[in-house]
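Hi R.,

Here's the chain you asked about this morning:
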Amino acid sequence: MKVLSTLALTMAAALATPIANASDYGCRVLMCMSNPQGPMAVQQCQPPIQRFMQEQAKKPPDPFPSCEEGAPATMQGANRPYDFCPEGTTALGEQVEAIQLAPAVYAQMGGLSPWMQGGAMPEGLKIETGIGEGNATGLGARNKVCVGRPLGTLTFRSGSGEWVEMKTVNVFEQLTTMAPAASPRVIDVYIQDKLYRSVRY
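And here is the predicted structure, written out as tokens:
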């Protein structure tokens, strides 16, 4: 909280005065990018952010402006097709299959009622296949899968007739999918080396 308060005070002071040098410009960009409501939510932020975006649109883009006064806040650019998984979850590994179940339901299906093992998958359950962090090429429009606490595995019968096979899937208490972002270009704002917020452009 103390770091955020200091950053807010520095931002207010910077926005209240004209841009005097490159450091002032860099601090404005950093602090406007730090605004949870959006980098151009404050009117005074619009000129420096527009200038910054124009610089980043160049080929190659200009280096990020510096802001020593903003430490321990820093800003880094990245090329990331998918957002990070929500707090408390991690990316499901590539080609790993998983489903989501409540712990009580899993206990009933895999523990209290073992005859369900090897049966057909109940309607309404959908198997999701992981793609890791989603940084590999050729993924197309596949969703990234984020999972929470693991519960175990379940085995179901898949197919029919001569093409019946047994499929074992991982079970998690929480499972979230996220589509690839419209743009892979992102600017991450860190405070004390911890990600504070990300801005795509």
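One quick note: Confidence is low (pLDDT under 50) at residues 112-116.

Cheers,
M.
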